[in-house]
Amino acid sequence: MRNRRSRRGRIRPYTFTGGRTRSRHPLLVQTLVSAADANTEAPSTLPPEAQRIHEMCRETRSVAEISAALKIPLGVTQVLLSDLADQGLVYIHPTITGHSPSENQVLERALRGLERLFQ
Amino acid sequence: MDSNASSSSSSASGRSLVSAKVVVAGGFGAGKTTLVGSVSEIPPVSTEAVMTEASEQHDDLSSTPEKVTTTVAMDFGRLTLEQELIMYMFGTPGQARFWFMWNDIVRGAVGAVIVVDSRRLADCFDAIDYFETSQSVPYIVALNRFDGELPYTVDQIREALEISPEVPIVDFDARDRNSAGNVLKTLLRYALSRPRQPDPVG
Ligand SMILES: Nc1nc2c(ncn2[C@@H]2O[C@H](COP(=O)(O)OP(=O)(O)OP(=O)(O)O)[C@@H](O)[C@H]2O)c(=O)[nH]1
Ligand SMILES: [Mg+2]
User: Fold this and answer.
1) Torsion sign over Cα B45, B48, B54, B57
2) Which of B22, B21, B24, B27 minimizes the C-alpha distance to B146?
């Protein structure tokens, strides 16, 4: 059986194209977003992709779900969502990372949810 | 007012929604998509990311700073754990040349499952190297035994993978819903048991 240590350090630093958002909101692939006002049309001055994204945000969805449904690459979806959020058109929901002990309660709720779903 | 759960929440009632992410990594064909599909409430969805290579600083052999653009697919599934708590499972692309994607998939994850085909242990070395080096996300190892007997004991596998004793190794069947769900439970228990310092998302 071969073991592992001989080969390492070959992970290259790639990033999503345009993935660096200007927004302060963390927009991760799992982050949920929804239209700030589900009854308001997106301004017609927005780029067409942004209008389609805004339209989808009438229901709460994740960044990845929007990207997959509209076939817009993830990095582009993130940038457009970030712009929509900066204009107050889209609300970005919080994401739990578990990195801070203050999130333990939510993680415990998640674990209980899994325990209910799987025996 | 909140009888409609998350899928049709209006902007006013849906504000308390939160989401979390688990990453499913491992070698090519190890059973990542199968695991995601077994637990997910939706069929695994595929999405694409256009990636640009930022630099090659970590690669000792190369000094050409040329940009390379690649399109890669990743798949994901979803679990509604509570009305306002949604977990996504993201599978990393299995081929080694796509490791570069991991940073963006992994960032902000609650934890990672490294799926290991017990007949091809070496295929998961990249994944373990990645999570061991980055240290930002707790990981567990899930052995998918593809119907067969495990060719090694769990202790032998731990030794071959050179992972520390506290990292859980579970034996599972990626096609079985409860077995795959049990892997996620193990991961969350482990994530909760780890000492953590307050630390902003980055
Ligand atoms: N017999 C058997 N087949 C399995 C099992 N798990 C997965 N498979 C099959 O193995 C193949 C690969 O599984 P996938 O889930 O697609 O593997 P993957 O890790 O997502 O593969 P890549 O994304 O291509 O790296 C598929 O044909 C699965 O149906 C298992 O436990 N037993
Ligand atoms: Mg797959």
Assistant:
1) positive
2) B27
* Check: complex ipTM more than 0.90: no
Cα(B59) to ligand 1 centroid in Å equals: 31
CB pairs under 8 A between A and B: 236
So what's the architecture of A14-117 in CATH? Orthogonal Bundle (1.10)
Residues A54, A35: Cα–Cα separation, whole Å: 6
- Compute the distance between CA of residue A81 and CA of residue A79 in angstroms, rounded to an integer: 5
Write down the number of H helices and E strands in chain B.
Answer: 5, 7
Is residue B200 within 8 A of residue A26, CB to CB? The reply is no
Q: What is the mean pLDDT of each run of 10 residues along chain A (119 residues)?
A: 55 40 70 91 91 95 94 90 92 91 94 97
With beta carbons less than 8 A apart as the criterion, state whether B41 and B78 touch: yes
Element holding B161 (H helix, E strand): helix B154-161
Half-sphere exposure of B30 (CA within 13 A, CB side): 31
Question: Minimal Cα–Cα distance from A40 to chain B, Å?
Answer: 11
Within 10 angstroms of residue B67's Cβ, the number of other Cβ atoms is 9
Q: Which protein residue's CA is at the shortest distance from atom 22 of ligand 1?
A: B29
Closest CA to B169 of B77, A36, A114, B161: B161
Q: Which residue has the tokens 């308390």?
A: B16
Look up residue B116 and give its two tokens: 């290991």
With H, G, I as helix, E, B as strand and everything else as coil, classify residue B63: coil
With contacts defined as CB-CB under 8 Å, which chain A residues touch B80? 113
- Structural domains in chain B, sorted by start: 18-193 (3.40.50.300)
Q: Which of B197, B181, B200 is closest to B189 using CA atoms?
A: B181
Task: Give the pLDDT confidence of B106-152 residue by residue, as tens digits.
Answer: 899 999 999 999 889 998 998 999 899 888 899 999 999 887 778 88
Question: How far apart are the C-alpha atoms of A10 and B98, rounded to whole Å?
Answer: 12
C-alpha B118 – ligand 2 centre gap (Å): 17
